[in-house]
Specification:
Order of helices and strands: HHHEHEHEHEHEEHEHEHEEEHH
Radius of gyration: 20 Å
Structural class: alpha/beta
Distance between the termini: 51 Å
Oligomer: single chain
Shape: globular
């Protein structure tokens, strides 16, 4: 006798309708943990289904990140080689001049990047720093690039000044779940990060906000990070998911690396819970290899940091990324690709 319950293929049920509105408090940690625990193939199918509905062109955004003010940061974030109290070999430098930043931005644009991000190792910039960065923003904006900055904590008037300068995105990561946060950094409270995000939102700047995995956190903390991000109202337009780059001299240098498939799961769940966000495959790509990166794109990643350096740590070079995208048949934002031609 045939067991039809086993022999008949069963449709995979999506966690919720992909067109459902996103409202504050919708995603519980338990619901996200249930997603993370799903069979990998089912999770990838769900994530790809959501991704294709919201991003039918299938393009990959290329964003370049430049450290415009390096080192000497008074924070003690355990992952960061730019903290002044850690001996990592990173030397403190002054804010770069406008012409230096413009040359880097033009090179990024020539290589295909559409967004240029500027990072400065400050705990919180002073108003005079905001004035100088505003000049950088205006110059980069003049090249026709989207602009992004990550400068530390902001006051509301500073966010408004950056908006007036033409800033498109502000990056301020939550890093991890609130319950694990004090294991990573003690010089800044979690609420400080949320306050900065609110100042950015109120100023009318788009939010780039994500976190880091592989810092010794438990699975529930990974679910908690996604819950925090997905329940922001609205959730971020850009969500960078970073795999810890273990830098000698930092407190987290000996952390156990995250299993590559668990990292893929994080990308997939970010896509499902934040369907209209650019989910960015960020730090740690050098250690992943092409196959894991390909799985991340399948899981819904549609943005990468592009260029041979992320602030002060390594990143795949431009040629390697171009080769990988060609192998996968993926196109960069602003470039025609086979799928786009078919859709048109």
């Amino acid at each position: 006798m045939v067991n039809t319950a086993l022999s008949t293929p069963q449709p995979i049920q999506l966690h919720r309708p992909v067109s459902a509105p996103v409202v504050r408090g919708e995603w519980t940690v338990a619901a996200i943990q249930a997603l993370l625990d799903k069979p990998l193939m089912d999770l990838l199918f769900e994530a790809q289904t959501v991704h294709r509905q919201h991003w039918p062109q299938g393009d990959i955004e290329l964003a370049t990140l430049l450290s415009v003010k390096t080192g000497g940061c008074p924070e003690n974030c355990g992952y960061c080689p730019q903290a002044a109290e850690f001996d990592t070999g990173v030397k403190a430098e002054k804010l770069m001049a406008v012409d230096e930043v413009l040359r880097a931005a033009q090179a990024a644009k020539d290589a295909g990047a559409t967004r240029f991000c500027m990072g400065a190792a400050w705990r919180a910039p002073k108003d005079r720093d905001i004035e100088k960065v505003s000049e950088l923003i205006g110059a980069v904006k003049g090249l026709g690039l989207q602009t992004c900055a990550t400068l530390g904590m902001l006051e509301s008037h500073q966010a408004l000044a950056l908006k007036d300068a033409g800033l498109d995105y502000y990056n301020h990561n939550l890093d991890t779940a609130p319950e694990y946060y004090t294991d990573v950094v003690s010089t800044r409270a979690y609420q400080d990060r949320l306050d900065t995000l609110q100042h950015v939102r109120s100023a009318g700047i788009s939010v780039c906000c994500g976190g880091i995995v592989g810092m010794g956190e438990a699975p529930v903390h990974r679910a908690g990070l996604i819950a925090q991000l997905a329940n922001l109202n609205p959730y971020p337009e850009s969500v960078p998911i970073n795999s810890l780059v273990r830098v000698p001299g930092t407190p987290l240098a000996d952390s156990e690396p995250i299993d590559p498939l668990d990292f893929v799961r994080m990308i997939a769940v970010a896509r499902i819970t934040m369907p209209r966000a650019r989910v960015r495959l960020s730090a740690g790509r050098q250690q992943m290899g092409e196959a894991v990166q390909a799985m991340c794109f399948l899981a819904g990643a549609n943005s990468i940091f592009y260029g041979d350096k992320l602030l002060v740590t390594g990143n795949p070079d431009v040629g390697a990324d171009e080769q990988l995208l060609r192998k996968l048949g993926l196109c960069a934002t602003g470039q025609a690709c086979a799928r786009e031609l078919e859709l048109n």
